[in-house]
Amino acid sequence: MTYDFAINVINQLSGLDVPIVTFTGGEPTIFNKLIDLVEYTIQKGIKPRLQTNFTNIDKLFLDKFVNLGGRIISVSIDGLEETHNNTRGKDGLFQKIIALISKYSNVISFQADLVLSKRNQSEVYMLIDKLQTIGVKVFSFRSIVPVIEGDIIDNYDFSKEELFKIYKDIHKKTDKFEGIKIVSPDPLYNIFKIIDKNIIHDGTIMGGCSIGLGLLSIQPNGDVLSCTFINKPLGNLHKENLKNIIKKINDDEFIHNVLLRENIKKCSTCKYKYLCGGCRARALHFSDNILEEDPLCFIDML
Ligand code: SF4
Predict the structure, then answer these.
(1) pTM above the 0.70 mark?
(2) Which residues, in sequence order, are CB contacts of 167 under 8 Å at separation 6+?
(3) How remote is the CA of residue 218 from the centroid of ligand 1, in Å?
(4) Could you read off the pLDDT of 52-87 as tens digits, one per residue?
(5) What is the residue with the minimal CA distance to atom 1 of ligand 1?
């Protein structure tokens, strides 16, 4: 994506009263004018959020970010020191992240994002403890989601039974951690909260799978996706503007089917369908059909 195109996109987002823009990648800091985009985003009344692995982040960058008014950063974490550095292939990266977060957590709201795998599952609670002590506000986790192109890392991924056990255990322990919010974008994790809080849906979509629910992903080539993990563009910003693309969402059969949830296998008869809906990317990856059941759905184990 060029700088001029990014500015054009930000202008469109501002005209649509979008409250927050996440700069992500890959790694957004390899874009050499990122800080200029952050500044422009703030000038247009939108909150910028960075999703970064911290490789290129240093004190100078964070000072600029804070001085411009930037306040939200998400950092990808793969485990404790050894696991993180080995996974990233960078000695000292974990220590650098910890040092910088400790220094800036009074002015920047940090979220740590963990992709759970067999490599790091035994470190989850020690990691949350560590992040909590340095002032991280939110710990977000999920299992591996198949990517647009490429292979799921089978050796790292969990079976349905394993995922159920891990999610249940994390949910049971969330109250133990004070000052750090534990969340997951995986609709399946939220089932535990729904049951605990006895949330009853009123027939409207209230959560779970976020497709069609106010989140859009804009790719470097201008494609607009309803889910980062599903390469099914709603349109392309080089051909039409975002307002027009959004207008078409209601008529999009794919979005309609996901939102309706009546045609999604297994979910259609589930009482949690409007609060969950499963992960459509997982369904698509494993069955080639977006409306298949989420292969990791563990509702029958509850
Ligand atoms: S059947 Fe669908 S809505 Fe129900 S818990 Fe499973 S994935 Fe969620």
Answers:
(1) yes
(2) 184, 186, 188, 189, 192, 298
(3) 28
(4) 999 999 999 999 999 999 999 999 999 999 999 999
(5) 267
